[in-house]
Amino acid sequence: MRILVRLGHLYHLASLGPVADEFIRRGHEVEFSCEHESKRVLGIPIKKKRTAEDKLRNMGYKIADQKSGLDIVLTGDVLPDPDTYAPASFILVFHGKGFKNLVYRNLKRWPEIEYQIMVEGPHRKKRMEETGARGISQVHVVGYPKLDPLFSGKVDISPIIDKYDLNPELPTVLFAPSHKPSCIDIIGDSICAATEDINLLIKLHPFSWGGKYAPHRHHRLYERAIRGFDHARLVSPEDRNIIPFIAASDIIVSGVSSTIYEMFAAGKFGVIVEVPNRLRRDSNPELDIEPAKLFEGVWPIVKNPKNLKDAILEALSPEETVCARAAALRKELFFGLDGKASSRIVDIAEGCSKDKQKTS
């Protein structure tokens, strides 16, 4: 089969890369594109598609030179131009599985387009039905392909420890705020003072560096803040893949980032910063589900930064009853946290291709 891995942005590679690698391992022809990489400079958006695709080439991936003749399009978001790829089958592995309702909104815009939608657990499949987002698509519960390298023991954290000079004798807190809605406006630089005597990794969303979808003040705030704290490290925007940082960290502090889901699936704990669920212009809320409600009684919830330090200490030493509640919720949210989600996705894709050949 000929497969196009359509990345919206380069950081989506963390979600789609394990699936692409499994296609390659099985001998399929796999090509990449990166459609929307950009950066805003002096208020002007600058396209970075060529730069992004050069980076993919340097990683050993082949870049697509045409969109016709495809059997499969593997995408991390709903396609804005599906007719361009006809008659290929569409495999959707949403790049950010979490709390926002973006994927549901986008699917409902084009209900007549069929996707094979891969979800991490029964909870997400149920929400696809309840929101009316499925349309004519099929939903498959496969697990968490983004975390396959973690569960299969393929993540080496030593480069992270060395590059960011982490003290191996201390626990590590990962501060990973979403770009929008963001807990940055609530927490600000207080995360640095709340984590003294602890390793602190500040991993901003790529959009918080680009200036197009979030303001440049996001990264400038922490570039200034870490100067006064020897334990705090601001992760380089070049280190896009969150998975090694999840592996290297003990807990996370965040508001609505999908990294919360990923840390939780990895069996770790964290602190939820409660972020208001504001209405969009279409009168729909930004969040499908509020993290503070989902994780109530499992992770500490913070509304005021003055309570952040105590919450971090609580998350670092969860009680047995809390661990039991976390295990039950993890079972409810996720399926097959075994490093084989990508293999299940490729099995489904190969089956779809055979079915299409029989009917053509």
Describe this structure in words.
There is one protein chain. The protein is an alpha/beta fold and 360 residues long. It has 2 domains: 2-150 and 339-355, Rossmann fold; 154-333, Rossmann fold. Helices cover 36% and strands 17% of the residues. The chain is built from 16 helices and 15 strands. The strands form 3 sheets. The protein has a 7-stranded parallel β-sheet. The protein has a 6-stranded parallel β-sheet with strand order 12-11-10-13-14-15, with helices on both faces. A two-stranded antiparallel ribbon has the order 3-4. A hairpin with a 2-residue loop joins strand 3 and strand 4 (44-47). Helix 1 crosses helix 16. The radius of gyration is 20 Å and the shape is globular. The model has no long low-confidence stretch (mean pLDDT 93).
Secondary structure layout plus pairing:
Blueprint: E1 2-7, H1 13-25, E2 29-34, E3 38-41, E4 44-47, H2 49-58, E5 62-63, E6 72-75, E7 89-92, H3 102-109, E8 116-119, H4 122-130, E9 138-141, H5 148-151, H6 158-163, E10 172-175, H7 184-187, H8 190-193, E11 199-202, H9 207-210, H10 217-225, E12 232-234, H11 243-248, E13 251-254, H12 259-265, E14 269-273, H13 291-294, E15 301-302, H14 308-316, H15 320-333, H16 341-359
Parallel strand pairs: 1-2, 1-6, 2-5, 6-7, 7-8, 8-9, 10-11, 10-13, 11-12, 13-14, 14-15
Antiparallel strand pairs: 3-4
